[in-house]
Design goal:
The chain is mainly α and 160 residues long. It contains 5 helices and no strands.
């Protein structure tokens, strides 16, 4: 056997082996990219589901408030409580519900007289605190106290 024949034999074995390993490496890289893309798509889908659930929760509260107001049964704080404001999950959701209610021309869910008191307060905590007092006449000193407690509730959450 001549050197040329040996070289051709070795290259006939070596070339397919190298081609195989190059394909395996490319497949691994493609698989890793596919997994990353799939995880990103799942995260986006989960985010869309969370946003849709949030919009539904807020929409349900606004819809019930609208029905109560249209029937002249309740509005303002009492209406918000009856509409299920405490079923929302965050202060931002409560604030969004209040904005939508006002945008539709209904009486605000939180009277403007208490807006300054509630500046910086956790609105969800506020409504959770107001809930047990719903049957009482909500006078100004009580509302100030509840607003203060709601602000403290936000501060204690921020500390965590």
């Amino acid at each position: 056997m001549t050197n040329t024949e040996i070289l051709l034999s070795v290259s006939n074995v070596l070339l397919p082996v190298l081609t195989y390993f190059a394909g395996v490496q490319r497949g691994n890289r493609t698989r890793t990219e596919d997994i990353a893309r799939h995880e990103a798509e799942r995260a986006e889908e989960r985010q869309r589901e969370l946003e849709a659930a949030k919009a539904k929760r807020i929409g349900d509260v606004v819809g019930r408030y609208r029905q109560l107001w249209a029937k002249r049964e309740s509005s303002s704080l009492q209406g918000m409580l009856k509409a299920g404001v405490r079923s929302l999950e965050s202060s931002a959701e409560v604030a969004e519900a209040c904005r939508l209610i006002e945008r539709e021309g209904m009486p605000p869910g939180i009277p403007r007289t208490y807006a300054a008191e509630l500046e910086g307060a956790d609105l969800l905590v506020f409504f959770q605190l107001v809930g047990p007092h719903a049957s009482e006449v909500l006078n100004e000193p009580l509302m100030r106290e509840l607003a203060t407690q709601a602000r403290q509730g936000r501060d204690s959450k921020a500390a965590l």
